[in-house]
Write a structure and sequence with these properties.
alpha+beta, Thiol Ester Dehydrase, Chain A, 6-stranded antiparallel sheet, hydrolase, PaaI family thioesterase, ACOT13
Length: 134
């Protein structure tokens, strides 16, 4: 699995409004997937703060891509649980959304996501997820 295949999966498997987030797959490390969520006035509140809804959508999307990487192909799945904690505001910078699979069985997969500022590297949100594998 490479970045080009994961980038292509964004347009193949996700709704147009998710594609409108303009997420970009970052170079792959040893584990998981990192997406760049570009700073945008459309996704920001007063003071240039990235809204929580955009962060949660990016987190969910990153985890699906992490599952694609984990399995080597797309497997139909649905989000069962997505729990987010917002640690501090993210303003006037891109977000890096790093997702990794903790465990994937036959019917359930578990993961965690860290969202941090691309410029300062500070963590702004943490999420845990559970997916049903269909």
């Amino acid at each position: 699995m490479n970045t080009d295949k994961l980038q292509a999966a964004l347009s193949e498997y996700f709704a147009p409004w998710v594609q409108a987030l303009a997420l970009r797959v970052e170079p792959l490390g040893a584990d998981g997937v990192t997406l760049r969520l570009p700073q945008s006035d459309q996704l920001s509140r007063v003071g240039g703060m990235l809204c929580g809804q955009a962060m949660m959508a990016a987190a969910d999307t990153a985890m699906v891509l992490a599952l694609i990487r984990h399995f080597g192909e797309f497997r139909p799945c649905t989000t069962v649980q997505l729990s987010s904690s917002f640690l501090k505001p993210l303003s006037n910078q891109d977000a890096l959304v790093e997702a990794r699979v903790l465990r994937a069985g036959k019917t359930l997969a578990f993961g965690e996501i860290d969202i941090r500022g691309a410029a300062d590297g500070k963590s702004v949100s943490r999420a845990s997820t559970t997916y049903a594998l269909l």
